Amino acid sequence: MSDAAQPTAAEVRAAAEALKAALDRHLLAVERRTGEDDPAVYDAFNALAAAAEAYDERLYDRYDEVTPFEIPGADDSLPPYTGPEEPSALSVLIRRDYAVVEPQRLLAQAQRIADLDADDERRENAPTVGESVHAALGVLFGEFEPDEIASRHKEFGLEEGDSTLWVSAAEELPEPGEWLTTPFDQADPERVVCRFDVSSVFDEEDHPEAPS
């Protein structure tokens, strides 16, 4: 980079101040989190990542110094973005894995839901779902939104595994019913604007085992 294109000392200082503000915003969002997938936390995370990158770049361009910051995530695994610069539509793809660790709790909760849904006249003929995990899962996911299940998974005898959320850009919305038979086949990594991953492997990387 030529000297003429280098940021000024004031610009580096401004980037540092912006990073400090982003840190404060992120901490406040985390402290006020309303759920596992609180969009305010995601927004603050993205702002913090952008501010850290901007500071790192200006610091290096001006002083040839680097920072120890590394924002966790899987964005480096994505190919270069080739989607529209000004998306007019988007698709949000979510995958969450769960292990059924307490089947009896799941079965009991599902039967409770089925009993509550049946009025007094039909209670005796209410479906029995408390004997089949398959049926219980259908009742559970038919009754609650996925975000509510994510926030209450322990109540239903579930244990969280890995999860990911992809935000993919599009030129326009697909025609109604166009992708319902194959909802995930059109996921194009080159159109992913951002993604958020949760995995215990990240915790293991942050806290490696001490050498023996």
Q: Helical segment tally? A: 6
Q: What is the helix fraction of residues, given as a range?
A: 40-55%
Q: Report how far the terminal alpha carbons are from each other.
A: 46 Å
What is the general shape?
elongated
Structural class: alpha+beta
How much of the polypeptide forms β-strand, as a percent range?
15-25%
Number of strands: 3
Instruction: Give start-end ranges of low-pLDDT stretches.
Output: none
In short:
The protein is of the alpha+beta class. It has helices at residues 9-31, 39-63, 103-117, 133-143, 146-151, 200-206, and strands spanning 89-100, 158-170, 192-198.
Explain what you see:
By secondary structure, the chain is α+β, with helices and mostly antiparallel strands. The chain has helices at 9-31, 39-63, 103-117, 133-143, 146-151, 200-206, and strands spanning 89-100, 158-170, 192-198. The protein is built from six helices and three strands. A three-stranded antiparallel beta sheet has the order 1-2-3, with no helix packed on it. Helix 3 packs across helix 4. The chain is elongated, with a radius of gyration of 23 Å.
